[in-house]
Amino acid sequence: MPDQNPLNWRDGCVPVSTRFDDPYYSLDNGLAETRHVFLAGNALPDRFRDGFHIAELGFGTGLNLLAALHLWRSSGQTGTLHFTTFEAFPLPAADMIRAQSAFPEVVQIAAELAPYWRDGSTDVSLADLRFRLIPGDARTSLPAWTQKADAWFLDGFSPAKNPELWEPDLLKQVAEHTCPGGTAATYSAAGHVRRALQAAGLEVTRIPGYGRKRHMTAARKGAADLLPHGKPCPDDQ
Ligand SMILES: C[S@@+](CC[C@H](N)C(=O)[O-])C[C@H]1O[C@@H](n2cnc3c(N)ncnc32)[C@H](O)[C@@H]1O
Questions:
Q1: 87 Cβ below 6 A of ligand 1
Q2: Is the CB of 137 under 6 A from ligand 1?
Q3: Which of 41, 49, 74, 196 has the most crowded CB, counting CB atoms within 10 A?
């Protein structure tokens, strides 16, 4: 079978999609970018609580999952992190593992999860993690999803190269699948992305981006401050 998702490797360690002609994450430091954009951008770890649900558009190498679980553990959070990701072109396990090996800080978690990727698992249950990968085009799979997330990682390739993952209808689905007080973050500061999130009913802010990117986007659904701290999302039990 032809490789669904052919890669080039920049400097031997950063995967670049030839299908989308774009790297999976920052060429400078993917883990630092994830921490800035998706973790800090969603006010994590401060908002973590047992049952906290992260959802992601674009699983790629799984680096965002590793970074989130690493933060969950290193911040001393108890209970279970839920992580659901939507991915149309899953990478072969060997490529995921090769990419992840460039980040020594998450090597232990990478090793813990590697057997699941080698088995082709799309569901992983650990003592502190419920992970699910929903295969297929997110434009079809997200509307069919029956849960809601506390925090969204919007991580398609650049909007110019992967417009499908930034379509206003899909971002509306993101907003609909967000708990009251929930948030979303993306490295992109494209005006049309911000406008689509706003049109979907989210409060949108432009904040400093990672590395050479001047800005990124953070969004919130309603007034988080009015919700009792730690209240679980009603649709996410
Ligand atoms: C920038 S990469 C994600 C990087 C990833 N979060 C990581 O930690 O490595 C974007 C991902 O979106 C996926 N993708 C592109 N179009 C999609 C679509 N329509 N539906 C679902 N996933 C899609 C690509 O296959 C790719 O894995």
A1: yes
A2: yes
A3: 41
pTM over 0.90: yes
Q: Under a CB-based contact definition with an 8 Å cutoff, are residues 149 and 177 in contact?
A: yes
| DSSP output for 110-139 | HHHHHHHHHTT-SEEEETTEEEEEEES-HH
Q: 146: burial class by Cβ within 10 Å (0-12, 13-18, 19+)?
A: exposed
What are the pLDDT digits (tens) for 166-188?
A: 999 999 999 999 999 999 999 99
Residues written for the chain: 237
Angle at CA of residue 184, ends 160 and 108, nearest 5°: 95
**In whole angstroms, how large is the CA radius of gyration of the chain?**
17
Tell me the pairing of strands 203-208 and 129-135.
Answer: unpaired
Q: Does ligand 1 have an atom closer than 6 angstroms to the CB of 156?
A: yes
What separation in Å is there between the alpha carbon of 231 and the centre of ligand 1?
Answer: 30
Identify the architecture of domain 29-226 in CATH: 3-Layer(aba) Sandwich (3.40)
The pLDDT tens digits of the residues spanning 105-125 come to 999 999 999 999 999 999 999
